[in-house]
Specification:
Oligomer: single chain
Strand content: 25-35%
Shape: globular
Helix content: 10-25%
Distance between the termini: 13 Å
Length: 272
């Protein structure tokens, strides 16, 4: 069998529009609209943590052992309000200190409508680009992931905390007054901090500042369908656009985050 490359991630670069490239173990491949994309998958994968060869991944790129033991795969990554570091039960305390006890933001983003989210401050605006947000703004900053998760969880009772990927693939955008939304939901949090169990001294309110993004898209998908790679040659057709973590084709979108760790033979755009 021909030599394979391990797919690492879809890398974006801020610009107007944003540019993208596919990052593999030993090379990067720029994405160019209009190119025909073929991906030959061997059917095997490499765990992104321990590098073992696997045939099934968990949480986008991990073997079951790492999924079960890594702090980056714990339930509190998806539900940050359930952080249990203070209970002494963090899977990897040093990792937790480095990733969860840094400055975090609670933000509003418009990708397929208004949503609330959190991120390490150092990961902004990358987080917004990865979600395919058209525009976004920060509501507040706080000192750790737990506090940001508690605030997000409270707002998620009323606001969405998910991007509707089907609408993203078809370019369904919702015009929003982000300045109004920022003022409204910031005031809403201020009124409910005590009920949430967060002290006023734990947060720093951020004035409204909007960041907007333009994605490289010539056309959107005709169908809101998630494309799955089959073992062997996958002739995906002409690349129409890239937004968030999706490569957009006429027949749907390919979520590149799902392919982390996949073994791809000779990945070079239209050439197999």
């Amino acid at each position: 069998m021909a030599e394979y490359q391990v797919f690492q991630k879809l890398q974006s670069h801020l610009g107007t529009p944003i540019t993208y490239e596919l990052v593999y173990s030993d090379r990067t491949t720029p994405l160019i609209l209009g190119e025909n994309i073929n991906l030959y998958w061997t059917g095997t994968m490499t765990c992104l943590s321990c590098q073992s060869l696997i045939k099934k991944t968990f949480q986008n790129g991990y073997c079951f052992q790492c999924f079960s033991t890594k702090a980056s795969c714990d339930m509190c990554i998806l539900r940050p309000e359930r952080c249990h570091y203070h209970l002494g039960t963090c899977r990897e305390p040093n990792w937790g200190l480095a990733h969860c006890f840094t400055e975090h933001v609670v933000y509003l983003a418009n990708s397929t409508g208004l949503k609330v989210g959190i991120s390490r401050k150092s990961n902004i605006p990358q987080r917004w680009i990865d979600q395919g947000a058209k525009e976004a703004c920060v509501l507040l900053t706080c000192s750790n992931r737990l506090i940001s998760g508690q605030l997000e969880s409270f707002l998620a009772r009323t606001l969405s905390d998910k991007t509707k990927w089907q609408q993203l693939l078809q370019g369904v955008d919702s015009p929003l007054d982000m300045s109004f939304a920022h003022a409204h939901w910031q005031n809403y949090l201020k009124m409910h901090l005590q009920a949430i169990g967060v002290s006023l001294s734990d947060v720093t309110w951020v004035d409204f500042q909007l960041q907007t993004f333009k994605y490289p898209v010539d056309a959107y998908a005709l169908k809101a369908k998630s494309i799955k790679l089959a073992i062997g040659d996958n002739q995906l057709g002409q690349l129409l656009g890239v937004r968030g973590q999706y490569l957009i084709f006429q027949q749907g979108g390919l979520n590149m985050r799902n392919l982390q760790g996949y073994h791809i033979i000779n990945p070079s755009g239209s050439v197999r």
